């Protein structure tokens, strides 16, 4: 997919979760191409501020904002209808809204109703929000004449599934599977020029990872702007479906090794989430070290220094790095 097909001044981008973080960074990026934008977020004040910020970009097209709860189908339908009324078509759809809540598989202490409320909140926004947005917009985009792209924000937690936040992992695993199906179905619509892409950020300094508290960006994290730049290159220049973003701590090699180990749990009939199983931690360390080309001595030092995925080595787990 060439840049000129979509990233141009006559194009329109719709972004959910656009009030801050990656969504806002994407809006500012597209604005630099002179595109028009429709920004949506559940936080009304945040979206108002985002619209004003994006309007300040030199050469930007028209910019609108909408308070939208993506977990509510009617909100999403109203957003779609507003976009079509203003612009008639959509060239970029970013299904980016997401939240995180404490969602263990079960709890010895949290009342069942409270635990289930958290689970439903996460699934309703992270999974059903994506479903609602894509099912409302994709039929329009699949039939329009001009090229378009649906970009869905996933997470490494939906691929490697680190323990500690089961509901979030489930929501993002569902997003991965749904987006794969969406890509397949779009390319099988006769004459469709709409593609789908799974955008998987690494460790990004956003509201979900501590930026909301005003703390400095950790050295290992990327900024939302870096992450969006990486995504734009992979989607619009290379046409990649899987956009797995590195960061300053986790290289592409490390990401691929972690993903491979997780998938091999099935092929080798290991225990679930064996990476975090005490009987497999040394093997995991050796596997990762070999993939990164470390010496046997370095592998031994690594085993003596840390448990896999712990903070002691300076490498955060996916649970730390993959919440947008």
UniProtKB/TrEMBL annotation:
<dbReference type="InterPro" id="IPR002347">
    <property type="entry name" value="SDR_fam"/>
</dbReference>
<dbReference type="InterPro" id="IPR036291">
    <property type="entry name" value="NAD(P)-bd_dom_sf"/>
</dbReference>
<protein>
    <recommendedName>
        <fullName>Short-chain dehydrogenase/reductase SDR</fullName>
    </recommendedName>
</protein>
<feature type="region of interest" description="Disordered">
    <location>
        <begin position="298"/>
        <end position="324"/>
    </location>
</feature>
<comment type="similarity">
    <text>Belongs to the short-chain dehydrogenases/reductases (SDR) family.</text>
</comment>
<keyword id="KW-0560">Oxidoreductase</keyword>
<keyword id="KW-0521">NADP</keyword>
<dbReference type="GO" id="GO:0050664">
    <property type="term" value="F:oxidoreductase activity, acting on NAD(P)H, oxygen as acceptor"/>
</dbReference>
<dbReference type="InterPro" id="IPR020904">
    <property type="entry name" value="Sc_DH/Rdtase_CS"/>
</dbReference>
<dbReference type="Pfam" id="PF00106">
    <property type="entry name" value="adh_short"/>
</dbReference>
<dbReference type="GO" id="GO:0016616">
    <property type="term" value="F:oxidoreductase activity, acting on the CH-OH group of donors, NAD or NADP as acceptor"/>
</dbReference>
């Amino acid at each position: 997919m060439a840049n000129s097909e979509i990233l141009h001044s006559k194009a329109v981008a719709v972004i959910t979760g656009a009030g801050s973080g990656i969504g806002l960074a994407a809006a500012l990026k597209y604005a630099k191409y002179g595109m028009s934008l429709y920004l949506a977020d559940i936080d009304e004040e945040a979206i108002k501020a985002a619209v004003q910020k994006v309007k300040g970009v030199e050469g930007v097209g028209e910019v609108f904002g909408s308070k939208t709860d993506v977990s509510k189908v009617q909100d999403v339908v109203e957003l779609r209808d507003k976009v079509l009324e203003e612009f008639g078509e959509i060239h970029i759809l970013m299904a980016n809204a997401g939240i995180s809540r404490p969602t263990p598989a079960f709890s010895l202490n949290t009342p069942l109703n409270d635990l289930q409320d958290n689970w439903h909140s996460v699934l309703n926004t992270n999974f059903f929000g994506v479903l609602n947005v894509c099912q409302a917009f994709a039929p329009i985009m699949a039939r329009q004449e001009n090229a378009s792209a649906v970009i869905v924000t996933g997470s490494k937690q939906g691929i490697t599934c680190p323990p500690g936040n089961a509901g979030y992992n489930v929501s993002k695993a569902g997003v991965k599977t749904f987006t794969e199906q969406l890509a397949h179905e779009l390319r099988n619509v006769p004459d469709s020029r709409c593609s789908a892409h799974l955008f998987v950020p690494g460790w990004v300094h956003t509201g979900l990872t501590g930026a909301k508290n005003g703390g400095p960006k950790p050295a290992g994290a990327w900024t939302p702007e870096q992450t969006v730049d990486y995504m734009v290159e992979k989607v619009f220049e290379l046409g990649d479906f899987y956009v797995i973003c590195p960061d300053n701590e986790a290289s592409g090699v490390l990401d691929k090794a972690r993903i491979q180990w997780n998938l091999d749990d099935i092929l080798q009939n290991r225990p679930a989430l064996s990476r975090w199983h005490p009987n497999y931690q040394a093997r995991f360390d050796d596997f990762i070290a070999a993939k990164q080309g470390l010496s046997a001595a370095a592998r031994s030092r690594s085993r003596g220094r840390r448990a896999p995925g712990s903070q002691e080595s300076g490498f955060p787990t996916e649970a730390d790095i993959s919440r947008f």
